[in-house]
Design brief:
CATH superfamily: Alpha/Beta hydrolase fold, catalytic domain
Strand content: 5-15%
Structural class: alpha/beta
Strand order of the largest sheet: 2-1-3-4-7-8
Number of domains: 1
Order of helices and strands: EHEHEHEEHEHEHHEHH
Shape: globular
Radius of gyration: 16 Å
CATH architecture: 3-Layer(aba) Sandwich
CATH topology: Rossmann fold
Number of helices: 9
Number of strands: 8
Length: 228
């Protein structure tokens, strides 16, 4: 199966390099997506530009792909399901949840000169980054790509309720599947509360398992693809 991989903020497609190896070994065709404004194209890229890049990958896939979103990009994966509900076999969400219609995409930190830079490790101290070595932290920070405000401040628009028919897997790293279920049941994640086919799985990692647990993440995604 084609597995489309969308990394979260400040990352490009190379974030998936080690996961790609595991997925290929399992017989799948991984396709890391380098997003406009995050390693491709202009710093003036918008959320619509990123959505268009994901949709182009969906349309180019062989058969129905599984679309994988990490962190903020969980919303990009879900937007793809909204626009192409009949073309996607499954959505996998790693360490995040889709924003609801009308919400900003990822307006988490103050932009500087039209870009939202990586804010340093302070906001991510604790479970998010506890499993990252000092070397991994330095490498991440030095390679981090400031994300255009046109992306982070873009407003999410969801229009097709057939997205709720697309099977969803939530991979839970710095939080547990039990916590995620509680948040969904409490109404904190309205999009997933309406999903008709929802599974959750734990992975023993921080927020970036593609860095610290790539083999296990590849295994979980390969299993999910076989079940799609």
């Amino acid at each position: 199966m084609d597995i489309l991989l969308i990394a979260g903020l400040w990352l490009d497609g190379s974030a998936w390099d080690h996961v790609v190896l595991g997925l290929e070994a399992a017989g799948h065709r991984p396709v890391p997506i380098t997003l406009p404004g995050q390693g491709q194209g202009s710093a003036s890229a918008t959320l619509d530009d990123q959505v268009a890049a994901v949709l182009a990958a969906v349309d180019s896939a062989s058969g129905k792909p599984m679309v994988v979103g990490h962190s903020a990009a969980c919303t990009l994966a879900w937007l793809a399901a909204d626009v192409r509900p009949g073309r996607i076999a499954k959505v996998a969400l790693i360490g995040g949840f889709p924003a609801a219609d009308g919400q900003p995409y990822a307006d988490f930190f103050e932009p500087e000169d039209g870009l939202m830079p990586f804010p340093g490790w302070g906001p991510f101290e604790g479970p998010d980054s506890a499993d990252l070595s000092e070397e991994a932290r330095r490498d991440f920070a030095s390679a981090a790509i400031p994300v255009p405000a046109g992306v982070t401040q873009g407003i999410v628009r969801l229009t097709d309720e057939r997205r709720f028919d697309v099977p969803v897997l939530v991979v839970c790293p710095e939080f547990t599947s039990t916590q995620a279920q509680e948040w969904i049941a409490a109404g904190d994640v309205p999009e997933l509360a309406k999903a008709k086919h929802l599974d959750l799985v734990d992975i023993d990692s921080g927020h970036w398992p593609m860095i610290t647990q790539p083999a296990e993440l590849a295994r979980l995604l390969a299993v999910a693809a076989l079940e799609a």
